[in-house]
Amino acid sequence: MRLDRLRIQNLRCLSNADLGLAPGINVFVGANGAGKTSVLEAVFLLSHARSFRSGAREALLARGASRLFVFAELRQAEDRLMRLGLGREASRWEARMEGESVNLGELIAECAVACFEPGSHALIAGAAEERRRFLDWGVFHVERAFLETWRRYQRALKQRNSLLRTGIELSSSLYTPWETELATLADWLDHHRREYLEQLRPHLHACVAALLPELGEPDLRYRRGWSDEKSLREQLEAQRGRDLARGHTGLGAHRADWSLAFEQAPQREHLSRGQEKLAALGCMLAQARLYADQHGDWPIICLDDLASELDDAHQRAVIGQLAESGAQVLMTGTGLPEPLRGFPHRMFHVEQGQLTPLL
Questions:
Q1: Is 158 annotated as a binding residue?
Q2: CA torsion, points 354, 334, 313, 21, in degrees to nearest 10?
Q3: Closest CA to 330 of 124, 117, 140, 122
Q4: Average per-residue pLDDT in the chain?
Q5: How far apart are alpha carbons 34 and 334 in whole angstroms?
Q6: Annotation-wise, does 32 bind a ligand?
């Protein structure tokens, strides 16, 4: 898939940008703080309904503006053109497709964006929440029942946590329906997460091993969030006393995690910051390749400040791989990355929130 046109209003310093994008590589160059990353952020919003920048929700809106808006003409497989829009006023998001209001889930199901940016190393070194988001994004684009199942799971979890915080007696029958619901939904989530990771595994091994050959064979490990010895419902019932003491549910699909280990770096702490970034990039490329296999169409690839994250050799390898794939790529940098000079591209200059096409 690719964006033919992107229009952004009142997103950070981008008050009014209207771009025609090339189907291949698009490069946004300019000084730090000019607004380059905000272009990628706008594209990411259409796919995730959130920013890839941590703590960015309140800062998205341009100073003095009451509403932000992102509009795109998205060309999907078989040359199908779809018009998408996402707006935000106060704390409320509004999604539109072909001029009609839709829920956020319908919007993000249509637009797939994979992103590598300076904070991406958190996928390897950060909290488990980042890795669950990565995993669940992949499952969501395969299993359309995922979003509703995940929402039902979150509602049941909230209800059980509410009982715990109000100190309801441990033997109370009020716990039973919520624990039963949690266990049933957690089994569904766990099954599809495992299935997705098995499909991702060969792509992950190939992409990560190519970027970090010195670390040996990578190994993907998954933890579902509760023991295999008994059903989750039985474990939740037995765990009530401990959960009551800490005020929240300690077992379940919301505690799932996965990790990468290597022959020469069996623990995450053995990786340098540079190796964490390369491992995270390998994960992103693997997920993009799997998406292409499943849908016959690559997701849009966003690469923020690639030159500061990777050396020339790794940049050249990644750019060459993406150029060969035919994926649409949006990149940022303070200048044109040297490894890109041998590849066709369209370049935009960004200065104080204004974007000017150069090539």
A1: no
A2: 10
A3: 117
A4: 92
A5: 10
A6: yes
